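Researcher: Let's run the pair from yesterday's discussion. Sequence first, then tokens, for each.
Model: Starting with the first of the pair.
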Amino acid sequence: MRLLLLEDSYQDYLRALEGLDTSFDITGADDPEQLVTVAAQCPVWLGQPDLIARLLGQGLKPLWVQSTWAGIRPLLATELPQDYLLTRAVGVFGQLMSEYMLGYLLAHERQLFERAQKQADRQWDTRTPGSLLGRRVLIVGAGDIGQDVAHFLAPFGVELHGVARSPRALPDFLEVHGLADLNRQASMADYLINLLPDTSHTRDLYTLDLFRQMKPSALFINAGRGTAVVDTDLVAALEQKCIAGAVLDVFREEPLPAEHPFWSVPGLIMTSHTAAVSSPVHIARLFIENLSRYRKGQTLKGQVDFKQGY
């Protein structure tokens, strides 16, 4: 079988794949233009959605695409074909995302950033820090990654609630509510973690009205998609102290423009879409497992429903 590999980190993925399986012929690069002439001879593609979309846009189409990202938004463009098998990266980001969330939850409770500033100002800070024990954590997006985060946080004694498209019972969560109940659940949360994908149902969810219903002591963390947040509303919420702070890893436009108000609004911490970066070794293992399923005609992990967008 001939595999098309299209990745910015092409050499890293090539080494990872060759270390696991040598039963297929890999053709690849980090530039789609270099692969136009050979892509039609490759029934299976592995790579990042933005680069793969450029080949699809030229009329080329595989039988199966394995994305190296959890998000597959570039492949959902209406002008691109959707009559092929698409799988997204699943089961490989849970540990990294959980560590990211835990780091900022603990930093908020232990007042680490404020204490660092006090030290810089030579001020002795005797405030009593908080604890995660008993804190109500709302995970909005109780899918693959959300469930991993919940499992990771559970031993810290937090009260875990979730939000998904519809109510359901899931391990580690006391309750998982429907998306229609988001505002009410947000009003009771000490921490609101957004992990939703980008779909027509998940855009512009976080408005000033929602932030005004939250506790003034609450922390908002978004590592799902930037389109879920109305940027101007979050800025207003922080300026009005509707919430204690926000941590953002994802944005509507990346890199974030230098003139964007997020750079200077008080109470906002930004990371540059690095909360859970794809690992070539982990993605290669997922691909090899899915390849075995593909050859046997079985359902693949992370199989995308184009109508739902994930």
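Model: Moving on to the second of the pair.
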Amino acid sequence: MIDLYYWTTPNGHKITLFLEEAGLPYRIHPVNIGRGEQFAPEFLRIAPNNRIPAIVDQAPADGGAPLSIFESGAILLYLADKTGRFIPQDLRGRNEALQWLFWQMGGLGPMAGQNHHFGQYAPEQIPYAIDRYVKETARLYGVLDKHLAGGRDYIAGEYSIADMACYPWIVPHERQRQDLTDFPHLQAWFERIRARPATERAYALAQTINTAPTVDEAAKKVLFGQDAGTMRR
């Protein structure tokens, strides 16, 4: 059994995509990040960076005590290794998948996240910041589009954790001021993943967890008002 500490963000969706694809038994513990539930002491023992997602594997492969993992990329890799699925088993294929997993973690996610922040949530519109992150998001879309050219169905050949990491960050493409028709190979890949039954199940589940996915003023103070002092409380 996998205990998943989750909220309906792109990083949260990565893990439900994997769990639904793999058919692993899991139970969700919602962590409403807009209401500060990520700062609860019991959650911080699992995820010291006060971010979702996190998991606790109640039956790790070493037969030891339950094992907690935080950071979505680390969780995807752990689950892939645990199941032997959704990561190529050969040296070159595995490393291709890992490169694109790290590309998402270090590039697509952070840049698209800043795009979301300055375009949707910042208290004032800063044209330079908006332009900077919209353009960088477009550049990253272009990188992935070029990689997918030439008949690739998925990022590392077969469907893998690289696709699961990237897809949720493309879902809000309109909010990121991106037009998928500008990236035809990426668009075909996106539609291919969206049509997978496990993807449909994962996103349907999200709608039952967070029935009002809005960021109000109280949530903004929680999400965007933290500093080093937060960790000293």
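Researcher: Give me one sentence on the second I can quote.
Model: The longest helix spans residues 91-121.
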